Amino acid sequence: MQRRRWIGVLRTPLGLTATALVVAVLLLAVLGPVIWSGRANAVDTGNILAGPSAEHWTGTDNLGRDIFYRVLVAGRLSVELALAATAIAIAVGLLLGTAPFLLGRRLGRLVTGAVNVAVAFPGLLLALFFAVIFGVGATGAVLAIGLAGAPVFARLTQTLVAGLAARDFIAAARIAGVGRIRILFRHVLPNIAEPLVVNATLGAGGALLAFAGLSFLGLGVQPPAYDWGRLLYDGIGAIYVNPAAALAPGAAVLLAGLAFNLFGETVAKGLGVTRLGARRGAIPRPVPEARAAQDEPVPDVVLDVRDLSVSFPGPAGEIRPVRGVSFAVRRGEALGVVGESGSGKSLTALAVSRLIDAPGQVDAERVEFLGTDLRGPDTRARQRLLGTSLAMVFQDPMTSFNPTQRIGGQLAEVARHHQGLGRRAALARAADRLRAVRIPAAERRIRQYPHEFSGGMRQRAMIGLGLMSTPALIVADEPTTALDVTVQRQILELLDAIRQADDVALVLISHDVTVVREVCDRVLVMYAGRIVEDLPAHELTSGARHPYTRALVAAVPDLDTDLDQPLAVIPGRPVAPAEFPPGCAFAARCPLADERCRAEDPPLSTDGAGRRVACWHAGETIAIESSVDELVEAP
Length: 635
What we know:
Rossmann fold, alpha/beta, 13 strands, 8-stranded mixed sheet, elongated, 5-stranded antiparallel sheet
């Protein structure tokens, strides 16, 4: 398909014209000095400053040398210097553009600020500035034009890298403990290569014109060497006597620059790339949870989280979308996390996996994974632990894989990085893991790209990626959202089978209460960034004590739902993270709320059976049951 696209593009008038011009310019640069160097340098004192004639098509210069042949020969130096300047612009631009990704937020902001200042200046002014610094001559001009073109290339690179850094496959590589430099070269640069190639091709044409301009001003190539700009400078002196002396090198610069720019447009079409050109209130901290039972040692705990909070800076102060979350997951246990969008489910998972980047801040009394404290700076041992024992299954399988890398190579990276396997052994392990997640013809599939997999197969492969090592915990963030019902069931059955076979703990984040009830042993219900109820999954339908949990369950249609009536919804909207009210965040949507609910935030209290609930009316079972119809109303 890609080959057909290129053939189709090259057959268009633009493609044919651009390709012919570029080939002609390159052939002239290679063959010109070889064929016409002797005639271009031959001095004829009898024909000094002669006009156009049959013998000299564009006349001669002040030594009687043929200007036409000198233009042909000057093509090599002009193209070489333009390409050298373009290479410098690309190299420096890549260094500056990827610096924020490699150096982190603080140093990266300094680099970004410097690039923004440089981009604000016209390129020609920057080139003249650097030309004065580096001095007159070809070397100084190459450096000047290269550095003058670097800021634009750096800005483009920064934009592309920033957009890619938020993709799931980058997060997966970070969880696996892959270093930033390796991520940059293996995952980032291949995915931004196409627009960079297009802009580099276009930049070569601009560099050619800029170099001719510097030579014309006397700051570039110096005699006895000559390029098109130098010939244009010499021809201007005799323009009233012999206009062709200036028109010939000028036409060469124009055609060569046009060739590179048209070819850049052709490359863009061939690659399918487009040229880039409320009042905030204070955030109340949740009331500390009464967790005497939680402080007792829990046997066989895989993940232990206490008082976890995630915050981000806002226009009017700190915004805390996750507030005081505490839970523990035992080996082999399936823990479900449910709640409406914006309740903090995914942010909690990302915080536990150490995927919250600056300016986000994660605070916790305790975050222990397999007995290792995950707070504090990264270490090699911690990266290895997360890369081998924690598997993250993201919501969108298409963004979970690097589209430029084969599936087998991406799975094998974990085994090569953490287990020290060779390439062949790692690929064999990858094929084995694909078979383990029920993907047929695994040996053939490992050589395919992500777009060659269906949605369900990509999600299976993502699970297989997590199984490349021996994970103790699988965090599945909405793993079936983009899949149809049949494939959804297969993925859930696969996760459950892996959990039971290998005694792996599972944290399943979902909007679907029914899915969580069927797959999980225990359920955490989150609202407004905190846990409002923690109960066994089999009690979700009949034993829920929080009004919000009951509303979620009642809003799910079943076989007894009257199809002639509108579907039930929870009235009102979830509270925005920057606008948490005092008291219970659910009070504005709850018919049981009273003045105490609106003034005091209820703590997450634990009963004798280990169930937890944060509600002042949790004990009012009869009142809650009679209020469900009021709580869940039709739109």
